[in-house]
Amino acid sequence: MNKDIKDIDLVILGGGPAGLTAGIYASRAKLNMIILENSILGGQVRNSYTIENYPGFKNVEGSMLADIMQEQAEELGAVIDEFDPVEDVRLDGEYKLVETESYIYKAKSLIIATGASPRKLPIPNEGKFAGKGIHYCAVCDGAMYEGKVVGVVGGGNSALEEAIFLTRFAKKVYLIRRYDYFRGEKSLLDQVEKNEKIEILYNEDLVNVEGTNFVEKAIIKNTLTREEKSIDIDGVFGYIGTEPKTDMFGKYINLTKNGYIITDENMNTNIPGVYAAGDVREKLYRQITTAVADGTIAALEAEKFIISNRSE
């Protein structure tokens, strides 16, 4: 099937905080642009029950913050398409070609803000029990565990936040941490330690889960003594990092060994006119605030690139 070709100034791939922020700036610059999102607008922010470290909001639900960002972008003129999946990109020519199910966008510039997805738990039975006791989004699936026992695996802010959130439903939450420390904020750790429903298992590593149709037990191994034991559990939520969504860019864009896009401080990739922003790019800190900053810079750089390359 022949697809219509749409000439456009800028395509933004991804509708998380980085992509939506880029859309806000691109719209204010009156660029002919579109945001394409294959998944859910708002990205991982929408899966956060509460956010307490975004300036301007003492406390805000992730879904509400995502809605506000989307509304602001659209009111400024951003065009957003959530229902036309991206199938391929071609970035080796003067124009950046983005092929969706319905169209081919011929863009002067491209911002990649596709984000990252949760890294799967590296245990033998992950596939068997995915969605049947193994989860990666407490906001999405936590209500399934009313009055039950769950585990949270991880050591950063996400693990701490979601352990707290799960106490709204579960009667007990095991926080499984392979080291004797957490990388998350001290204020969050303080809340966890004061919560009577949460038991922290330091120096314990989740090595497998077992059950018949659903998870019934977690097998953990002490990282110091190497002793294994099982605990009765109904579900496990993994927060052990993320994996960037960069599969379709590898043959054009320079990536790290872990698949993150390499950029300079102005979000430039190795291809002129192609930028990366947010969790998809290689950087030290991945926060909503840093994603928003990336989106701002990428859009301003894209605007400058488009103007400088317009034919007289």
UniProtKB/TrEMBL annotation:
PROSITE patterns: PYRIDINE_REDOX_2. It catalyses: [thioredoxin]-dithiol + NADP(+) = [thioredoxin]-disulfide + NADPH + H(+). GO terms for cellular component: cytoplasm. Residues 9-295 form the FAD/NAD(P)-binding domain. One of its GO terms (molecular function) is thioredoxin-disulfide reductase (NADPH) activity. Its cofactor is FAD. One of its GO terms (biological process) is removal of superoxide radicals. Binds 1 FAD per subunit. Its EC number is 1.8.1.9. Keywords: Disulfide bond, FAD, Flavoprotein, NADP, Oxidoreductase, Redox-active center. SUPFAM superfamilies: FAD/NAD(P)-binding domain. InterPro entries: FAD/NAD-bd_sf, FAD/NAD-binding_dom, Ferredoxin-NADP_redctase_2, Pyr_nucl-diS_OxRdtase_2_AS, Thioredox_Rdtase. Belongs to the class-II pyridine nucleotide-disulfide oxidoreductase family. Homodimer. This is Thioredoxin reductase. It comes from Clostridium paraputrificum.
